[in-house]
Design a protein that fits this description.
By secondary structure, this protein is mainly alpha-helical. It has 9 helices and 3 strands; from the N terminus they run H-H-H-H-H-H-H-H-E-E-H-E. Helix 9 links the parallel strand 2 and strand 3. It is elongated, with a radius of gyration of 25 Å. GO terms for molecular function: monoatomic cation transmembrane transporter activity.
Length: 323
């Protein structure tokens, strides 16, 4: 029941983030149209990428829950990872390149003198207000993501970790994407605010254009980091070190197991694990081995009940060359 509640809460969080980002994107586009700010336009593209990110993640989450008709024997769990990879390689990257190209065009025009460098301070102040409000909303979103990260670490009994450490070890494509999205948003808003602020102080539009380019570059760099993470999840990541130690202990403490010869485990999604074991049992008797295998499966599931396990155990004889 608790796992179902966690999934429902995670879905609600993404929907809430989507609604918030739609509002923020509209406000940014309005401010960009009113002021002509390059930084604000880049931030508008950034928010559109965030909205598309959440939509794709929601679609991927729903598709992963569908039952396979047999053509995918281990289910459709990794659709979530595919959705995250699409977000990283297409939405974020394309959005970042588009924002950079628009800012670069304005920057060239300002440097060549084909566009006026005189900044309208009143209009840019309005854009700066939008940046400030957006930063508060994105900061709250990141706070929510970090809180959820802490809750998930507690739920699966792994040691508390830094934000970067959790992002690297998490098997949740959804949470990794949202955390990256919120972090990039705050960094981008910082660059946008700096560019707009310097344009207000100096009266020169050049700084606003530079701020817009930096926002686009943040998106491009973020897309590379998210692509690496989601790509790793898509290929298949093993259990983290502390969880692996719990599984090993559960297997070795099972009555009838003399030795754990080999263990391979891979996450199908955040809450589903494929576990393959090769063990040496106390007696080389088929009936005895069957009972031992059943005990192993029961012990693993009892020790780590927060995961959905697909377990395969092969009784074997240990040989020195296997060490």
């Amino acid at each position: 029941m608790s796992d179902q509640n966690n999934q429902k809460n995670a879905g609600a969080a993404v929907k809430a983030a989507l609604l918030a980002n739609v509002g923020v994107a509209c406000a940014k586009f309005a401010a960009a149209a009113f002021t002509g700010s390059s930084s604000m336009f880049s931030e508008s593209v950034h928010s559109v990428a965030d909205c598309a990110n959440e939509l794709v993640l929601m679609v991927g989450d729903r598709a992963s829950d569908h039952q396979s008709r047999g053509d995918h024997p281990f289910g459709l769990h990794r659709v979530k990872y595919l959705a995250s990879f699409i977000v990283a390689t297409l939405l974020f990257f394309v959005g970042g390149v588009f924002a950079v190209s628009q800012a670069a065009g304005k920057l060239v025009g300002l440097l060549e003198g084909t566009m006026s460098r005189d900044a309208n301070s009143v209009e840019l102040i309005a854009a700066l207000v939008v940046v400030g409000v957006s930063a508060c909303l994105e900061g709250y979103g990141l706070h929510t993501s970090v809180h959820e990260a802490r809750e998930r670490m507690k739920r699966v009994q792994v040691e508390d970790d830094s934000l970067i450490g959790f992002w690297r070890r998490t098997k949740s494509a959804e949470l990794a994407s949202v955390m990256m999205e919120d972090t990039l948003a705050l960094i981008g808003l910082a660059f946008a605010g700096l560019g707009i602020g310097l344009s207000i102080v100096t009266g020169d539009e050049l700084y606003d254009a530079i701020g817009g380019m930096l926002v686009g570059l943040v998106l491009v760099c973020g897309s590379a980091a998210l692509a690496f993470k989601s790509g790793s999840l898509l290929v298949g990541e093993s259990l983290d070190r502390s969880t692996r130690a719990l599984v090993v202990k559960a297997v070795e403490d099972t009555a009838g197991v003399d030795r754990l010869i080999n263990m391979q485990a891979i996450h199908m999604d955040e809450d589903s694990v494929l576990l393959c074991l090769k063990v040496e049992t106390s007696k080389l008797d088929r009936d005895y081995d069957v009972e031992t295998v059943d005990k192993i499966e029961t012990n693993v599931r009892r020790t780590l009940p927060w995961y959905e396990w697909e377990i395969y155990v092969e009784p074997d004889i240990w040989r020195a060359k296997q060490a």
